[in-house]
Amino acid sequence: MFDLEYLIPLALALSVPARAFPAHASLAGLRTEEWNKALATLKYTPPPPPPGPLECSGTKLVNDADHPFMDPQPGDIRGPCSGLNTLASHGYINRTGITSCSEIITAAMEGFNMENNLARFTCYAAFLVDGNVITDKLSIGGKSDKTGPDPPGPATVAGLSTHNLFEGDTSMTRADAYFGGDNNFNETLFQEFVEYSNRYGGGKYNLTVAGEYRFKRIQDSIATNPTFSFVAPRLFSAYSESVNPINFWVDGRQDDGQLDPEVARSFFEKMRFPDDFHRAARPMNGENELEVLAAHPIEPGSNINGVNTYTPDPTSGKLADKCTLYENHVNRTVRSLYPDPTGDLLDALKINMHYFYTSVQHRGCKEIFPYGQ
Ligand code: HEM
Ligand SMILES: *[C@@H]1O[C@H](CO)[C@@H](O)[C@H](O)[C@H]1NC(C)=O
Ligand SMILES: *[C@@H]1O[C@H](CO)[C@@H](O)[C@H](O)[C@H]1NC(C)=O
Ligand SMILES: *[C@@H]1O[C@H](CO)[C@@H](O)[C@H](O)[C@H]1NC(C)=O
Ligand SMILES: *[C@@H]1O[C@H](CO)[C@@H](O)[C@H](O)[C@H]1NC(C)=O
């Protein structure tokens, strides 16, 4: 299962009475008494409904005068997602890095032309585990583990950096949490990304490269990381991040699925749109992640007894089956983090679970109600 050790700093923070519970910290995994203390300092803000699709959904200049790049100021938070970091640097989401799903969904559509259901699916899945469902705030990063350097931002809040929920192993340009530094851009790994783009893509990162590089990163983690875990929900974010650069970082006027690694660096490392950047030519839904998996099919699983002990886990949802991913996420992951919610917490969880469901409704998935209707 996932690692709950990240909650220890929160529990410590709570035992100091003078310290208010951070409004953007997740409440997941807290005990009832801890939650009661936290609630006393937090105001319940029910989440607004998710934004609908864009009306004008073609390409356009997005690195525009209304969205200038600015470096994060001291106290601003950045995290493991290069897409959200970039949206924060340009003010599409709050530059502090503290945001909400309604803001992220609008920003991902506006700034990158992410298709509405994909933006909903990704955001509510992450928000339910890493966000504060009472205040409707999500931190795009924070403290991830006890060994690596901390990214900028308050150290007791983990946000999207929380290990083994959404953030996870075998990232493209971030080392595994086991080695520390899973939030931060790693030049060594980026050079491997470039090398694979040269070897399989004629110097560009494309879907062929994505299939090979995803497999390589998995093999690296199997061989070097004794704690390697590759099950849902990380499974979903790993394939999604393999195709995101192809779908969202190729200029919409170019629109050929061939990404220049120096353009990729602008996002991965500098968290910045290239000059004159135009978003994708149409809403992109990420279905090409299945081609990445098809290049080297691998079952969800983990190293169960040290390096090179990768063992499939048949209970994990699989990439192609979004209905099972949805069900497992709400019925197992979220429910194990919130075993017995009441009051506003129960209300907030039910609303966010329903918003999450709306992202898979068009696939014919059945809505489930882990906490009753
Ligand atoms: C819609 C809400 C989104 C959420 C909640 C989200 C969350 C995350 C998280 C938690 C990670 C870390 C996974 C890991 O490597 O361990 C990640 C990685 C990544 N995200 Fe996002 N993301 C979102 C949207 C986007 C968008 C719009 C883009 C691209 C435009 C994007 C591009 C990426 C890329 C490329 C990585 C991989 C970074 C790397 O491996 O070095 N994401 N995302
Ligand atoms: C960004 O967040 C801060 C702190 O939560 C808030 O004071 C500010 O008004 C927000 N900015 C925008 C543009 O919404
Ligand atoms: C970057 O990743 C490489 C390969 O995983 C690792 O050896 C190195 O220690 C990492 N560097 C930093 C600064 O984390
Ligand atoms: C990626 O680039 C290589 C080299 O140009 C090419 O052979 C391959 O077909 C490309 N793949 C895709 C999906 O564009
Ligand atoms: C949810 O999980 C419970 C047991 O934890 C199980 O009884 C129930 O059938 C599950 N519901 C769905 C729809 O998977």
UniProtKB/TrEMBL annotation:
The answer on whether this UniProt entry bears the keyword Heme reads yes
Asked whether the keyword Transferase is assigned, the reply is no
Q: Which residues cross the membrane?
A: none
Pfam families, per database record: Peroxidase_2 (PF01328)
List the Gene3D superfamilies hit by this protein, alphabetically.
Chloroperoxidase-like (1.10.489.10)
Q: Any idea where the Heme haloperoxidase family profile domain is?
A: 65-294
In its UniProt record, a GO molecular function of this protein is: peroxidase activity
Q: Which InterPro entries does the UniProt record give?
A: Chloroperoxidase (IPR000028), Chloroperoxidase-like_sf (IPR036851)
Annotated keywords: Heme, Iron, Metal-binding, Oxidoreductase, Peroxidase
Kindly indicate where the leader peptide sits in this chain: none
Which metal ions or organic cofactors does this protein require, according to UniProt? heme b
Name the protein family: Belongs to the chloroperoxidase family.
* UniProt name for this protein: Heme haloperoxidase family profile domain-containing protein
